[in-house]
Every structure is written in structure tokens, then in C-alpha cells.
Specification:
The chain has helices spanning 78-84, 88-92, 113-124, 147-166, 182-194, 214-229, 384-402, 410-418, 422-425, 468-478, 483-489, and strands at 18-22, 36-45, 74-76, 101-107, 130-134, 171-177, 200-203, 205-208, 233-237, 244-246, 253-255, 258-259, 267-276, 297-302, 304-305, 321-322, 326-332, 346-349, 352-355, 360-367, 376-381, 426-427, 436-439, 445-448, 465-466, 506-507. It has 508 residues and is of the alpha/beta class. Helix 5 packs parallel to helix 6.
């Protein structure tokens, strides 16, 4: 999740059920990559609208991007997302992550996360989040003028709120690295794994795999091996610029894949553009009986926004936002991908996908104090960083249903993808590309030819997005206790030179 600086204007405090109106595209410097856009002001007040499960919060209402006829934009609340991916029936049946703990690893801090989560839960009528925050190496004092810190604080908001939205019964442990250096992130991950803080780990960050360096690549992999031995599932976002990632010095772009998502022990989450049914309100002239229920799955393509490859070019005309994917130059093809990728000898990603479009984004609460202002604002977020915590939540539900931790999931995912259950467990994304147009430090265009979606696995969308109850059942059914150890035994990074300029991880 990368953000455009200077495009953070707060909403008024949300006091009543209302339609909110989105502002137009910002003016941005070449090369800037947003994956968040704000809603600014309350529109005409609407009648109170109950949430789909009949348990409205004291402020529950709808935004224009959710309502038929109110806005051309699209956005999703927790109930629409659960309905779209058929997770609603699981939550209704009590499979909501109860007894599970999701570990979210991020950098720096968000000093207002407790208030933000409380506002999110109150608005949507969700149960209180059982949230614990740990900073094993201490916290760097939060600086509202530091764009990097603010970006990570926003990432923390997205990760915590939306992991809870999908698995509201699970505990969440937020583990904070003191900076976004790879050494600090590895240290935070190691603490979480050594102390077995949870059953599933979500990582919504990354960088070009070539910029990590051999020592830290080995350190990440050792932590992931230790986690796999403890049956801890691992998820990471695949990046937000399609097949492009920044060079190590940050001045240009190259065709690459992201670490830590590239590690074969991690489930890499790509991005889609998900379209669902909006709320049909009779008060606005819509006939509910003639329209599908809100959140009903309608279509899904590879996430790609911006010219020349994607849609919404009028909004994202300055560069591509798209799910990361491609082939590693560090890790060879793991055995669990054989048969899926007959013409490759390299680790490929993503493994799966999830809704990531900004213009079809998730509604997320931010506290104005993050920007040196006041009031709570509702923002529209996209990016593969939205998918990683939600897939982690799905894994926690699968663990609950299995009655034990499933741990390493990639082998089961690829068995599902090659089985007759694929059609009922995974939405096969067959339309779109993650080709990418970016701009270097001199404002020169860098055109990266990516990968196209097609039947079955592809480097634009992986094996596909989840069909909730069936996917959860298949993860349980396809689980084999020896998968994790087999993956550890067959996984080894190739020797690589140290980068001249060491990289740092960024929110995806």
C-alpha cells in the first residue's frame, strides 16, 4: 500500500447515517503511487439503514459508492465483502476465527489504532476487537510530519480493521518493528514466531527481491521455516505496481517480484478488481425485489488501474496500480507448483488473489490525528495489502473448522487448483493483465510488459480468489501434515550478490 502525499484531507466526523461523496483525482508527481483515496464530506442524510445481518451499529449507514444510483464509484463494507466471497454463511454459523490469533506484522506505529478500530466496529456493528500490540525492539516515536511513518500507520489501520471484519472472533496481535528496514522486520517476525504469538501471520509489505540481499533473504527464510515447523500459516501481499517494482536506489523500475511474498513458504496474495451488487434503496427509486442482494458477486478481473493497461485512466492516468506477479530470480520452482507451471523453473507468484482495486476499495477508518488534524475519516483503500490480512482471516476460520492449525497452505492450494473442486472453491480470474507503466526519477516512462490472466493459474491472478465456505472446506480436506516439512526440505535460495544499495520494505 503506497500512498500519495498531500492527498490526505479528513472527513468530517461521522455522526449520522449518510451518503458520502468522493472527491476527484489528486494532482501528483510522476511516479507517485496511491492506493488510498479519501472521502471528504457528508452528503444528504439518509434514513438509518440496518446492516445485512440485522445488527446495526449506532452509526451504521451507507456511502454513495455503495448505493445504486448514488455514485458511479464502487466500495465495499464488511458485509458486502463477506457476501461476495461467500464468507457470510461461515460467520453466521460461528466460524468466525474464534479460538484463533492473527498476527499482523507492520513497521513503526499507529498511536490511534485503538480509537480507530473502536470507531470502525461501532459504525458497522462489529464485536470489539481483541487487539494486543507488541513492539519487541521498542517503538520509534511517531512523527506526524514523517510521510513514511504516516503511511505505515495507515497500513496498520487497514490490516487490523479488515482482518477483524472477516474473522471477527479471532484475536489480533499487532507486532511492530521499530523501522521498515529488513533487519528490523525480520527481528519482529522472529519474535512473533519464537514466542508463537499466533496461528496465522499477515505481512502487507515488501520490496524487489533483489534488494533484500542474501543474508537477510536467508534470515527471512529461516524465520518462515521456524513458523512452518510450528504450523503457523504465512501470508504476504504481492505488490501494487503490477509486474514492476522499484530499483534498489528508488530511481527507476524493473520487472521483478516482491519479497517476502516470493518465499516458497509464504502464500503470496495478488489483486483483483471485484464488482459486487450495491445496496438498492427504495427511498432512492430502486426496487429491491428486482435487484440482487448487496454484496452479490458479479464479476472479477485482474486489478489494473491507470493508463495504458487498466481502467479508471481518468483517475490514475499517471501510472499503473496492479497486483504484483511474476517469476523469482532467487528461488527455484517449488515442488507444489510443478504441474501448474510446466514451462517454468522458478518460483512463481501470486499463489492466490483477493479484491485489491482502489476504485472498488474497502471502507477504512482513519484518525485525523495521524495527519495533525481532528476527526475520524472514512477512506477508500485498495492494494494487495488489503488481501493479505483478509486471506489470513480466512485461514484462521479454516483452522477453527479443522480443529487444529493447518500451517503451510500452498501445497493444499495448488492441489485444490488442479482438482475437480477448483471450480467451486476458487474464482478463476481469466481477464486482465498486470503489465505496468511507471515513471522514473527523471519523469521518463518505464513500460513493463507483464502477464495476462487465463484459465487456471497465471502470474497475474494466481490460482484465483476464494469461494468462502467451499475454499475453507477444501483447505481442511486437502491438508497433509507433511506438506510443511516437505516444502522446507525442497526450498533453498540461489546465491545472490549483495545489492549496492540495500532496500527497505514498504507497505504494498
Amino acid at each position: 500500500m503506497s500512498l500519495v502525499r498531500g492527498f490526505k484531507r479528513l472527513c468530517a466526523p461521522l455522526i449520522c447515517s449518510s451518503l458520502l461523496l468522493a472527491f476527484g483525482p489528486p494532482s501528483v508527481a510522476a511516479g507517485a503511487v496511491p492506493s488510498m483515496k479519501p472521502f471528504l464530506r457528508l452528503g444528504p442524510a439518509q434514513a438509518q439503514v440496518a446492516s445485512p445481518d440485522g445488527t446495526p451499529g449506532p452509526q451504521y449507514g451507507l456511502f454513495g459508492c455503495q448505493v445504486v444510483g448514488a455514485s458511479a464509484a464502487n466500495c465495499l463494507d464488511p458485509y458486502q465483502m463477506r457476501t461476495a466471497y461467500k464468507l457470510d454463511s461461515l460467520v453466521a454459523a460461528g466460524y468466525d476465527g474464534t479460538g484463533q490469533t492473527i498476527v499482523i506484522v507492520d513497521a513503526f506505529s499507529n498511536p490511534y489504532i485503538v480509537d480507530q478500530v473502536a470507531a470502525f466496529n461501532a459504525f458497522y456493528g462489529l464485536p470489539a476487537t481483541k487487539l494486543t500490540t507488541i513492539a519487541p525492539d521498542g517503538l520509534t516515536p511517531f512523527d506526524v510530519s514523517d510521510a513514511n511513518m504516516v503511511g505505515w500507520a495507515e497500513e496498520i489501520s487497514l490490516d487490523v480493521e479488515w482482518a477483524h471484519a472477516i474473522a471477527p472472533g479471532a484475536k489480533i496481535v499487532l507486532v511492530l518493528a521499530k523501522s521498515n528496514s529488513d533487519a528490523d522486520l525480520v527481528s519482529a517476525l522472529k519474535y512473533a514466531v519464537d514466542n508463537h504469538l499466533g496461528d496465522v501471520i499477515s505481512m502487507s509489505f515488501g520490496e524487489n527481491e533483489s534488494c533484500v540481499g542474501p543474508d537477510l533473504t536467508a534470515a527471512y527464510h529461516q524465520v518462515f521455516a521456524d513458523a512452518t515447523k510450528k504450523n503457523i500459516s504465512l501470508f504476504a501481499s504481492s505488490a501494487d505496481q503490477g509486474a514492476a517494482l522499484s530499483t534498489c536506489d528508488g530511481t527507476s523500475w524493473v520487472k521483478a517480484v516482491s519479497s517476502p511474498a516470493v518465499d516458497p513458504l509464504v502464500t503470496s496474495v495478488g489483486g483483483t478488481e471485484l464488482t459486487v451488487a450495491k445496496y438498492c434503496l427504495a427511498s432512492r427509486g430502486c426496487v429491491p425485489s428486482s435487484n440482487p442482494a448487496p454484496g452479490t458477486y458479479q464479476s472479477e478481473v485482474v486489478w489494473n488501474e491507470g493508463l495504458p493497461y487498466g481502467d479508471y485512466g481518468n483517475v490514475f492516468g499517471y501510472g499503473t496500480l496492479s497486483g504484483g506477479g511474476g517469476f523469482s530470480i532467487i528461488y527455484p520452482l517449488p515442488p507444489y507448483q510443478k504441474g501448474t507451471l510446466p514451462h517454468s523453473n522458478q518460483r512463481a507468484l501470486p499463489d492466490v488473489s483477493y479484491s485489491g482495486s482502489v476504485e472498488h476499495g474497502v471502507l477504512t477508518f482513519l484518525d485525523g490525528r495521524l495527519f495533525g488534524s481532528t476527526g475520524t475519516g472514512v477512506y477508500l483503500f485498495g492494494g494487495t495489502s488489503a488481501g493479505a490480512p483478509q486471506w489470513a482471516a480466512i485461514a484462521s476460520i479454516a483452522n477453527q473448522k479443522a480443529g487444529h492449525d493447518l500451517g503451510f497452505l500452498n501445497a493444499a492450494i495448488y492441489r485444490i487448483g488442479l482438482s475437480t473442486a477448483a471450480a467451486t472453491s476458487l474464482h478463476d480470474i481469466t481477464i486482465g493483465t498486470n503489465s505496468s507503466l511507471q515513471f522514473d526519477a527523471a519523469n521518463g516512462a518505464v513500460d513493463i510488459s507483464g502477464y495476462s490472466a487465463g484459465p487456471g493459474w497465471d502470474a497475474a491472478s494466481g490460482a484465483g480468489s476464494p469461494i468462502g465456505a467451499s475454499m475453507v472446506d477444501q483447505l481442511v480436506a486437502q491438508y497433509l501434515s507433511g506438506d510443511g516439512q516437505a516444502a522446507i526440505s525442497t526450498t533453498k535460495a540461489k546465491p545472490m550478490p549483495k545489492p549496492q544499495v540495500p532496500g527497505k520494505a514498504h507497505p504494498h
